[in-house]
Amino acid sequence: MGVAKLPLNELAAEPGTKIELRLLPKLDMLKTCNSAEAMNRIYEIKGRKHTSPLAICVGDVHDIQRYAMTDHLPRGLLDCLLPGPVTVVLRRGESSILEKLLNPRLESIGVRVPDYNFIREIACGSRSALALTSANLNGQPSSINIKDFDNLWEHCANVYDGRILPTGRAGSTVVDLTKLGKYKILRLGSAKEETIAILERHSSLEDGTGD
Predict the structure, then answer these.
(1) 52-56, 104-108, 165-169 — which is least confidently predicted?
(2) What are the residue ranges of helices labelled H in the chain?
(3) In this structure, what are the phi and psi dihedrals at residue 55, rounded to the nearest 5 degrees?
(4) Per-residue pLDDT, 210
(5) Which residue of 97, 119, 155, 202 has the fewest CB atoms within a 10 Å radius of its CB?
(6) What letter would DSSP give residue 90?
(7) Smallest Cα–Cα separation from 24: which of 38, 36, 14, 37?
(8) Confidence (pTM)
(9) Cα distance between residue 192 and residue 166, in whole Å
(10) CA 163 → CA 30, 43, 70, 136, distances in Å?
(11) Burial of 26 (0-12, 13-18, 19+ CB in 10 A)
């Protein structure tokens, strides 16, 4: 396992990124969402139950439509939210090319497009989505530097060091966009206010149904 250094200015470009900056457990594991072995390895390393869903990362906003339904969204919304520290939750739909073994009990999928060229280039180069999760054992605080998860290094082909995460442990803001014209914040994260402002500019209403 090697430790590679990344410039601090690149890290600062994506304050909400978690695993993308700090943990790549055997690049093959994160190279594609279409490998059952790779996904099982992620759960094994983290000590995570298979009932806990994984999100995916793609290289560009226009790639999202390959994995999730976007036709119901206001024009330009995704381009305003992403790239950035936001996870959008969308319905997978029948046309999704995602492996059925990824989150098999769920009809939705969380999608990231990080504002971070290193990971986006890997996603584009793999010609697939990357399964991702935070660089920590299940139930433990999110990492803000690579030392926080040094107990997992032995499971990693490489660890990429972007130094200290400047915004702390908040993670990405998670927003449910599965309903037409509505949104629901599932996790506040580091970009809540900016995310809500963008959603409201696109005439989206907060979903208060509690469903």
Answers:
(1) 165-169
(2) 8-12, 19-22, 27-31, 36-46, 77-81, 117-126, 192-201
(3) -90, 175
(4) 55
(5) 97
(6) E
(7) 38
(8) 0.82
(9) 17
(10) 21, 25, 35, 16
(11) middle
